[in-house]
Amino acid sequence: MSKETNNYKGRYSEPVPTSNLQNDENDFPEFEPFDEDATPRSFAPVGAALSVQHVDMCQQLNKPNHYTTAYDIQNLVVRRGQEFVVRVTFSRPLAEADDFQLEFLIGSNPSPSKGTLVAVTFGSRHGGPWSGQIVEAQGESVLLGITPTADAIVGKFRTYVAIVTSGGMQRTSRDANTDLYLLFNAWCPQDAVFLADEAARREYVMSDYGVIFQGTVSAMSQRNWMYGQFERGVLDACIYILDASRMPIYNRGNIIQLVRKGSAMINSQDDNGVLVGNWSDDYSMGMPPTSWTGSVKILLQYANTGVSICFAQCWVFAGVFNTFLRCLGIPSRVITNFNSAHDNTGNLKTDLIFKTDGTPDRRNTRDSIWNYHCWNEVFIVRPDLPAGLSGWQVVDATPQETSDGHFRCGPASVTAIKEGLLCHPFDSGFVFAEVNSDVVFHKRDRYGTLSPYRVDKTHVGQGIYTQAVGSPAPMDITHTYKYPEGSADDNRTMARAEEYGCERDHSELPDTQLTVTITVSLGHDVNLAVDFQNQTEHSTTVQAHLAGSVVFYTGVISKSFRDQNFTGPHKYSNTRMSERVMFRIPAQEYMPHLGSQLSLQFIVTGQADDQSVSAIKVIEMQTPSLTLMVSGQPQVQQEMIVTVSFTNPFNFPLQGVHLAMEGAGLVTHRTRYYSVIEPLSSISWKESFFPRLDGPRCIVAVLDSISLRQVTSSVLICIVHTGYC
Amino acid sequence: MSKETNNYKGRYSEPVPTSNLQNDENDFPEFEPFDEDATPRSFAPVGAALSVQHVDMCQQLNKPNHYTTAYDIQNLVVRRGQEFVVRVTFSRPLAEADDFQLEFLIGSNPSPSKGTLVAVTFGSRHGGPWSGQIVEAQGESVLLGITPTADAIVGKFRTYVAIVTSGGMQRTSRDANTDLYLLFNAWCPQDAVFLADEAARREYVMSDYGVIFQGTVSAMSQRNWMYGQFERGVLDACIYILDASRMPIYNRGNIIQLVRKGSAMINSQDDNGVLVGNWSDDYSMGMPPTSWTGSVKILLQYANTGVSICFAQCWVFAGVFNTFLRCLGIPSRVITNFNSAHDNTGNLKTDLIFKTDGTPDRRNTRDSIWNYHCWNEVFIVRPDLPAGLSGWQVVDATPQETSDGHFRCGPASVTAIKEGLLCHPFDSGFVFAEVNSDVVFHKRDRYGTLSPYRVDKTHVGQGIYTQAVGSPAPMDITHTYKYPEGSADDNRTMARAEEYGCERDHSELPDTQLTVTITVSLGHDVNLAVDFQNQTEHSTTVQAHLAGSVVFYTGVISKSFRDQNFTGPHKYSNTRMSERVMFRIPAQEYMPHLGSQLSLQFIVTGQADDQSVSAIKVIEMQTPSLTLMVSGQPQVQQEMIVTVSFTNPFNFPLQGVHLAMEGAGLVTHRTRYYSVIEPLSSISWKESFFPRLDGPRCIVAVLDSISLRQVTSSVLICIVHTGYC
After folding, report:
1. Mean pLDDT of the A450-458 span
2. Catalytic site residue from B66, B373, B545, B669
3. In the structure, what pLDDT confidence band is assigned to residue A5 with cuts at 50, 70 and 90?
4. What angle do helix axes B234-244 and B314-327 make, rounded to 10 degrees?
5. CB B481 within 8 A of CB B414
6. What value of ipTM does the predicted structure carry?
7. How sure is the predictor about A523, in pLDDT bands with cuts at 50, 70 and 90?
8. How many Å lie between the alpha carbon of B568 and the closest alpha carbon of chain A?
């Protein structure tokens, strides 16, 4: 039953409007007579009839004031809750008795009671909720100031000027040049997205490029991402996403509903949204998630075709979602949570199963710990929650079957998560578990029964990071989600979480007096040091096992390359010193299995008498690098050249190599394909471009192929208008 | 990307299991050797090897104890948290050294860490979370008691007996006869659905027929509904619904997630669910919502075809949802809210727009007040919320675009709604607005500007009713949702609701000193009395307007038949007496427009000097009746006859008349079609049946045609087993 037919009949007096972009017709007849016959002709005009000659949306005046200069778009873009001006040129100067109003309409069937038809008056006559004033009158030309309310609907409005005549309303006809885009306004104290700090606004609303952290918490890597929210077509693509979601227009002033709908729409699950997730390592039917340079191409293609884009993994969902949010004016940032208990069922147990001999029981282990997971935070007020829970909120666009979210997640208050107040919407319990899950090690006996033998309360959620303001450095924000482990505050939070239904493991396990740790030093060969520490009263011998695997960043095993039993050191006694066993994993042992995965996972398990020990270590391999160089005059509209260079460091050829580059406000998305790059040989790729925007700008390049994924680099340049920086 | 391919690779170690019904293969090889070679042969059997001869699920013993006798199904049905017995006959009596366990599996890739593979042991050896005991051993036959945990997964399990031998596990092979269904248990204090009162359990879990209230709060009507949760195929259909929703099996013990998923799946929107909503009055492509006798046919057809069923309106969604809930063991009931502000956007304003002359401005009015709306309540614990919010929870399966719910709604705590604690999940604000919205009357001036002139705080949510326990009478439960209007508690609730983001109208309007009320007396002609009361200082004349329309039960206007200006009484003074104007609406004025709508809406608006008045009255027309008679011996498996009689009371023929009947546990769904029933002529339809269940039973019949909808009747009979009641 589509709404395009009249099936709304009997359910709604008019169909619920959900399309912002598809309204091209004239809303009004040119002249709309008043209904009542009995009205005396009290508004007979003085002199000649008034008419509108021209309507000027004053882009040069408005855009700087509204921080919307960077949008590469024909129409005016302004932010709500703040005055913008329109210059109307009439047929003659206004007289005392003249009466007119501006009308702003959005979507189909616009209505004053729903905020989709707003009449703005400029005299004593009462109009709609947006206020109006005459800023300046000079002859026939009048400069009008209009201030949309701080909770106005966000989207694309149509503008009309209506003149009151004695018999009815005389209006301008539909003119797409006077359409305007209204956004959220982080500069307006009454707006739900208000952010007081200017540097923070510059980063979280205005910055169109950034870095996303990956890897492991002890060896963090980063990749660039072009958010590109000001590039041509992106704003329309974001509104297209809302239209495709069928979100009623009159809800689009509500920040909570909008970000929630956005988190649902960025993934394709269940609503034909923007991106299709694929973790299978087979990307032959689309683009590998590692190969993207940014959001722009993805959003433009989705808006042009309506077909979901292949493929994404968590950083792609987060990067594209960040563009959507910032484009609409919402302060947002990308977060990386290291050791993330993703795909949890809302309880605090990530269960790893081991066999009786201590080796990993992969067939029966269902949970995994993601090396890292990326989501977004938005900075908004939460009027639907008790005081104190506003500020940063988690929203996650990566689809997951096992949360209630039904392929959307959040907004969940970060403060509520820290306080364990999981009784508030949305999906707080799920996010809480992602950062707080305990890792429970189970022994599975021959009969299939599980017995927990160790609980690691610190492995999950070891570090939560985002990019620092104004710099590509990582900023540790773990303390915003979690109190220090074991502190009284932390205990209170965990107790609350359990009260609110998050199950925890409470096995009474004997204290382990045997511990084992793994340290790794990287090179082509991997050197593993396994240290055993024995705090029991007697010397003992540990029967141990080393499992080495190549893992996806989700922690799921791609290929095991080492399953080795060994004996821990003999005859060590009750000391604080540890005894060490060394392993060397030569490159040729793991390299053939790396494929597109660059993480190695080592698990050591050991048994002595009644005691069991385990340790897990994940390392990320280093990738070769890409070189980016720029030459030319760094000035708007002056030609520049960018050169991407790369040398294949391996002793095997790289095949099917895709290179891509983009730079918001600088260079549009470009690609180059190399069918083969021979061992030790180099390539060099030049592109010319003409910068569009000034200020600090970034170009990102990514090299991606089946054997070598996501080699990325970036270069920063400062573009000036007139020759000085 | 379907999960049937290996796209889970890299994301999950195994695909997330979401299908309960599609598991027919053997889970195990007949003999599963132990892994370890080093295990000494310590369990050498004494005497001959032990094997299983027979497994008896003891249905005759278990079903009465678990209140599952009524299910018309081959396999055992039991409730969790309570012991059931299984009789295993071995090849010889058990010896001291013998070791065995029962294993219960559900879904694909079952796992002990997810509760989908549960091993039950019967001696000292530790097993899975369900407890086991040997109730009785008699030679080779052993009666085993198994007690699933009170939070076990709900659904269809497969049963195996595994004998420990020296080399491995010897198991029975897959036997569908030993499959069992595990349900929620309202009799178990540890179960989240525990309901202490036995009479309440009898009604809310066990009753398979009931009444649903419709009409208007001052003239309530009711229609029967056959829930039929015990009829053949219905339990499998409910599990089919969960499978179709792709709800992970291991979440199906969680009552909150399950009811939320159910509320999404009962409507077809966005997930290919059970029912398609249609309020358009054109039901040519399916069955009219008024024509159903109950849920059974709908559920069976959906489970058989996987195709959504056409068509439903709110009582159908609620009736089918009730069957789903009760079938799985969840205490639930159908609720009717009279004057429901459905399709709200979460604020407390239902805006009705009027023109300057006081006539309704239908073109600009977007909101409507439903004569009534039906949803469900479930009685569950809410561990995810602060204490005190457990008990009845609202769940609503009728799809609506304008809530965040994305076509599902709830569970929302009724207590939280009463207290205005809208900061808790799920969709509390939306339900709150449905029962508390203020009706704001706006005048729309010639320029399109709205000015509120009256706020009616009591019109919406005038009465919330459900069927009484053990009787078809209506029970007023309004007080569970709302404090008395204007009380201190009510004010506190409304203040909290506003704190939590529910916008209210706060126009400062002058007290109206003119009031108008409408009273109606029904007959074929409608007599309308309009009373004006003038409490001003001076006499005045009211310019008034009467609008009469046929409305859908959603309050949306189908057809206007009267738009009449009139003058209120002259020269009345400041008294408490009212002055009356009478109207007569002859039958021939409204009858041609009734169609399938049986509600008339009258709106009187008036103006005098500065004051405006309005009143709304909705009436439901009475329908002719159907007669049901039953004859024969009221005994299980004895033949009985039911006769449905009807006389066409109108002076026009009824065409395309569908009759249907069903009686849970009595008579399966039957239909009869009459192409025409002439004016004043009668029909008589006989069916024979053999009762399946004893106790108080009900047969429902419905007559439905384009010109006359939902003529319904029922008859109660008491069926006995052996000849006495």
Report:
1. 88
2. B373
3. very low
4. 100
5. yes
6. 0.86
7. low
8. 20
Would you call B373 a catalytic residue per the annotation?
Answer: yes
Average pLDDT over residues A438-464: 90
Which residue of B126, B404, B554 is in closest CB contact with A10?
Answer: B554
Chain A contact set for B507 (CB, 8 A): none
Residue A625 has pLDDT above 70, yes or no: yes
B449 contacts A126? CB cut-off 8 A? yes
Torsion of CA A125, A128, A131, A137, to 10 degrees: -50
d(CA B421, CA A641): 60
pLDDT at residue B4 in the model: 37
Buried/exposed code over B638-658 (b: 16+ C-beta within 10 A; e: otherwise): eebebebbbebeeeeebeebb
Interface contact flag, A34 B446, Cβ < 8 Å: yes
| Distance of residue B10 Cα from the nearest chain A Cα, in angstroms | 5
The pLDDT, as a whole number, for residue A105 is 96
Q: How far is B460 from chain A (nearest CA, A)?
A: 17
Tokens of A681: 């040989």
Q: Which residues in chain A are contacts of B419 at CB distance < 8 A?
A: none
Confidence of residue A213 (pLDDT cuts 50, 70, 90): very high
Cα(B369)–Cα(B371) distance, rounded to whole angstroms? 6
Chain B: closest CA distance from residue A348 (Å): 13
- Residues in A closer than 8 angstroms to B395, CB to CB, are none
Cβ neighbours of residue A645 closer than 8 Å, sequence gap 6 or more: A626, A627, A628, A629, A682, A683, A684, A685
Residue with tokens 């493991």: A505
**Which whole number is the average pLDDT over A4-32?**
74
**Distance from the A423 Cα atom to the nearest Cα atom in chain B, whole angstroms:** 5
Look at B554 and A211; give whichever has higher pLDDT. Answer: A211
User: From the list A425, A448, A556, which residue is nearest B426 (CB)?
Assistant: A425
- Tell me the chain A residues in contact with residue B281 when contact means C-beta distances shorter than 8 Å: 9-10
Does residue A409 have an active-site annotation? no
Chain A residues within 8 A of B364 when measuring between CB atoms: 111-113
What's the pLDDT at A500?
A: 92
Residue B342 annotated as catalytic = no
pLDDT score at A501? 86
Contact check, Cβ <8 Å, A385/B423? yes
CA dihedral B557, B561, B563, B566 (to 10 degrees): -130
Query: From CA B421, how far away is CA B493, in angstroms rounded?
Result: 8
Q: What is the band of A721 on the pLDDT scale with cuts at 50, 70, 90?
A: confident
Cα three-residue angle B433-A106-A274, rounded to 5 degrees: 85
* 3-state secondary structure labels for all residues of B470-500: CCCCEEECHHHHCCCCCCHHHHHHHHHHHHC
Q: Is the pLDDT of residue A458 over 80?
A: yes
pLDDT tens readout for residues A117-149? 999 999 999 999 999 999 999 999 999 999 999
What single letter denotes the amino acid at residue A485?
E
| For residues A53-69, average pLDDT | 97
Query: Closest chain A residue to B404 measured between Cα atoms?
Result: A257
- Catalytic: which of B243, B343, B396, B427? B396
**B370: closest chain A residue by CA:** A11
Token pair of B328, please? 């799985």
pLDDT at site B725: 43
Q: Which of A251, A157, A113, A118 is nearest to B366 (CA)?
A: A113
- Across the interface, do A251 and B402 touch by the CB < 8 Å criterion? yes
- Regions of chain B with pLDDT less than 50: 1-5, 38-42, 44-45, 405, 571, 725
User: Which of A250, A248, A376, A233 is CA-nearest to residue A318?
Assistant: A376
Mean pLDDT calculated for residue range A312-336: 97
